[in-house]
Amino acid sequence: MAFTPKVQFRPPQWVFLEISETSHLFGGEKSCLEQVVTKASLLSDGTKIRAALADNPYVAQALCEFESMTISPRGQDSETLKGLSLEAIPFLEGLLPWGQKTQLQNMIQFFQRLGFLCLEDLQKFPSTSFKERWGQMGETLYRRLFAKERQLVSLLVSQEGFYSYHYFDDPAFLSSQVLHPFYFLMNQLFARLEGRGRFAQKIIVTLYFEYSQKFLKLPVEPISSSRDLHLFYDLFKNKLDQINLENPVREFEIDLVDVPEKVEQLDFFEPRDHAKEKWQRLLSFAKDHECEVGFLETDPQILPERSMRFTHRIPVLEQIQDQKTVLSDSVQIKTAFSKNLEKAPRPSLLLEQPQPLESFHQLKFLTRLPTERFETSWWQLTEKEKVCRDYYFALNPQGQLLWVFQDRMSEKYYLHGYFD
Amino acid sequence: MNLKTKAIKDLLPIELQSQLIRPEEVAPPCGLRTGLDVFDNFVLWQGLPKGEISLFEGPPGLGATSLWLQAVQKVHQQKKWAAFITDKALLSPHNLQQRQLDLDKLLVVKKPEKKEQLFWILQEMISSSLFETIGCQISELSISHHQMVKLKKLCRTYKVALILITEKIQRLQQQILALYIQFKNNFITIHKAAHRLTPFTFDGSLVYANSLPQICKQHRA
What we know:
heterodimer; A: about 425 residues; alpha+beta; 6-stranded antiparallel sheet; B: about 220 residues; alpha/beta; 8-stranded mixed sheet; elongated
């Protein structure tokens, strides 16, 4: 679909492309034909690619089989067919294959017994001759010989899923043996993705082993969808390296989950930023290795340990302010931590969970009175959820500057952060 | 100056034209300025060395993170990125905002549970060429010597300033480090800095004086 949206596939190996409206984008019909063959060769598994161009799909198919890389001039399909032998008749199919192959072979043998050698000889007969002897099939043959049958390549997009499969003749016990066909199949799948304008969200590779009925599913999901083949390959390679292949792999399947393409509207003068792709790669690897990687974001909460969160996307910074809710005649205000204390000192390192301090007597408190007091909304919470803390700055004998609080409920001291 | 000497002096620039370096091209290796003049003016790089590994040794609460964050502030002013790997305590975003740091240009990584993953994540982050500086604050440095050598090569290639902030030093060969600073009590001592006479000590309150005015003015309760 990189060349035209009008594509139809007839298994096992025929692909029909309607390029009458798009060939000029690729430098003309001949250039377009060559590019199609080149691209198909890259995706094939070594099979020779043949192609031809004609007004009608069935003529193009016949030319493809016997005179590859031929371009039939416009409006002269019947003239082009003249030179082909009778063996080309089974290939005059296009989008609609012949129904009765046996009758077709009988037809060819009949013509051969009469001494006919090429399709030009058949074109001398009127349509009634074909129809009387072979009925509907004869009439169809006549129409195709004279390029009178219209076959339209549809605009409908293929709905088949992205799936691939590989079988090892000799079971693979090395990861490199698995990675080689994997890369080839992924290349094909990503080419189809590109043609359909879709992105890959994740792939699930299912490995089937030789000596048991077990199978192993390896999901690979980067941080965001893309068509970055190398990223998916590297992520799968990392996962495969962690598996012991003493029980070798006999076959594997690839299921690709696709999503709509994300289109970035770039200004003409705006340089393309590759940092975002590097970010996605780094975050995907980190996620794969179960490393928590992200950005810090503030949260309008009263308690310091709840007033920050870890986010995997680039944060949208909002001004710290109270949350005000107006309900009929009442106003509810939820105070935000550090809203009015922007100039007040805050520790650079904050412990996720405050640590109890046993030896707080050794600390030198810099102020007699607490610098701040945090208290949760006592009218809403139960006894257990109530929090009331008095915060101090303190120095320990080693000279470390600490952020310490006293829990007024239990009267115990806790270490909450360091001014480092 | 006699005529002969003058003639030689005039001839030399012509003969050695391509090999001569202009005075303005001679510059020290680049570093990340911290804004702390006593430190920046002392070290060769006029800041934290880029493309090298530096070590800040000392327990938290003595200014090691603040010194690094001051360099990060300058990095963010240039719209560039920094990263921080932490062991137990997270950086407080409120403190970062007070320092006018850009939270969306500071990637934070929680130290992975497996030891080998620390080396892997450092490798990936350095080779991603996204960061000007990476701070790694861990209570115990569990990177082997050959891993450190590898990291140093990567830092040199991608011009990243890697700062290791740790409480305990294990057997770490000082040849690998370009800068080694110890934070103890109220003093900061530079034990190793290329092409400089060390040790060099200065007052620790210079680093976090703006955090607590009481410390700066030496007031006590």
